[in-house]
Amino acid sequence: MKIFLSWSGQLSFEFASIFRNWLNSVIQSLEPFLSSEDIRKGSRWLTDILRELNDTSIGIIFIVPGNHNSPWLNFEAGAISKAVDSACVIPLLIGVERSELEGGPLSQFQSALFSKEEVYKILESINEKLEKGKLTDKRVFSQSSG
Q: Tens digits of per-residue pLDDT, 87-119?
């Protein structure tokens, strides 16, 4: 299953990059996409991003102080949510309160605060959507806490 990791700015990128590597170690059947790492040099980056957004049903939006109004974050969240019934867009709030999203497009999605418990809930949500490579709840918890 493909997971689109959306970032804007250096701090957001650093969290997305760490999360990408960690996700692969927790649920091996996932294919996290991080534009800075997964687009080949010389490629038309916009074409690659649009293709990934079209093929993705889960996105994690890395929200840090000052980037919640980023046009790219909002564009990517909207593109992922195109399939209303099956799409899953998760704003991950790092040093940001939910109230800061109010009135903006990202406020329509159930967000997660950056904490061990909330990150575990993100993993549960992702694991529930898996058709192949699904882990038991016990296995998700043991993998994520290691």
A: 799 999 999 999 999 999 999 999 999 999 999
- Token pair for residue 138? 């016990």
pLDDT (tens digit per residue) in 10-47: 999 999 999 999 998 888 889 998 988 866 788 788 88
How many CB atoms are closer than 10 A to CB 49? 21
Residue 66 Cα to chain centre, angstroms: 18
- Domain borders along the chain are 2-144
Distances, alpha carbon 24 to alpha carbons 72, 77, 109, 116, 144, in Å: 24, 22, 24, 17, 11
In the structure encoding, which two tokens stand for residue 140, read together?
Answer: 């998700």
What is the CATH code for 2-144? 3.40.50
Smallest Cα–Cα separation from 67: which of 10, 107, 123? 10
CB 135 within 8 A of CB 127: yes
Q: What is the pTM of this model?
A: 0.87
